[in-house]
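Q: Sequence in, structure out?
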Amino acid sequence: MKHIECFFPNLISCDYAITSPATPVYNCIAWAAGDTEKWWEPDSQNLYYWPPRAPRQYTLEAYICVYELLGFTLCDDTIYEEGIEKIVLYACSNRRPTHAAKQLIFGGWTSKLGQLEDIKHSTLDGLTGRYYGSIAVIMKRPKKIEP
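A: Exactly. Output:
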């Protein structure tokens, strides 16, 4: 876990745990969308998956569009709500998106750290800082009912 804390020193003061092994197959954007089969990125070479109707740009507006296509809408808070799925988008100071995290049942959060592991973390502040910047957008949608 020390290798994660080198990148995200704020995790030291928050309760977190590794929940799955490192993999380059998917990233945080895919993870927040519920996809563990492919890497989501709006690269100009089309090497990675990006939803067809979303602008292929590294902008908050394009990332918001991706999640809106999945049924998410903008919201104002990260407070846990029964029956609601929430995600947050982090961005650096120039508003370029850097990371997405999704809320767990009863609060807490889960993140895929690039090609590193998935983690659960008690606060969103654990990932703020040099690499991911700060929270820029909060979104929500009704949870899908599993049959």
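The first strand starts at residue 16 and ends at 20.
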